[in-house]
Design goal:
mainly beta, six-stranded antiparallel sheet, about 40% strand, Jelly Rolls, globular, single chain, five-stranded antiparallel sheet, 2 helices
């Protein structure tokens, strides 16, 4: 069987930028967005528990930074279906060599890439165009009691958002900044 994903290098362990490889002909293409057998190589070991689809209308909007804590910690496979985003993953894993480091990638409908984000990472994105549609595959269902968020402008993270922030939800605006004694997420 021909592999439909290549992993491109990223600096944080467990994080994968996947290049999808569509099958094309004169009619167009077929593109695999998820394959449990292939993604096990990159750490995905669970069934998809939930799929979410978002639409963000305004360029410069930020969604995130979100994660779920154990026992509902989750992996996410993030794909941009329309438009383009600057997608950020922040390592919040306790005892990780890259604790509090972040890495961002450009995802778009055109570049055919997906971001595989392991448990213990916070995730968010900024829209680089209007009317962006995103697809999220989650390894665990949403559990409100296990939800955690970090403010997108947290000084400890110093994320360099590419555009001025045009819009954030009330929930994202009210996430706390990390306390100096924050030791990370224990998985």
């Amino acid at each position: 069987m021909t592999q439909r994903f290549d992993s491109l290098p990223v600096p944080l362990a467990g994080l994968h930028l996947l290049q999808r490889k569509p099958l094309s002909d004169a009619r167009g293409y077929l593109q695999r967005l998820f394959c449990a057998n292939e993604l096990t190589e990159f750490g995905w070991t669970h069934a998809i528990a939930q799929i979410n689809h978002t639409l963000t209308r305004r360029r410069g909007s930020v969604r995130g930074l979100h994660l779920q804590l154990p026992p509902h910690a989750e992996m996410k496979l993030i794909t941009c279906l329309r438009g383009e985003v600057w997608d950020v993953a922040v390592d919040l894993r306790q005892h990780s060599d890259t604790f509090l480091q972040w890495h961002a990638v450009h995802l778009s409908a055109d570049n055919q890439r997906s971001y595989l984000i392991p448990a213990g990472f916070a995730h968010g994105f900024q829209t680089l165009s209007d009317d962006v549609e995103m697809l999220y595959c989650h390894s665990a269902p949403y559990a409100p009691t296990c939800e955690m968020g970090v403010h997108a402008l947290d000084e400890r993270l110093a994320i360099s958002w590419p555009l001025p922030i045009a819009d954030m939800s009330d929930k994202d605006t009210n996430w706390v900044r990390l306390r100096p004694d924050f030791q990370g997420v224990s998985l």
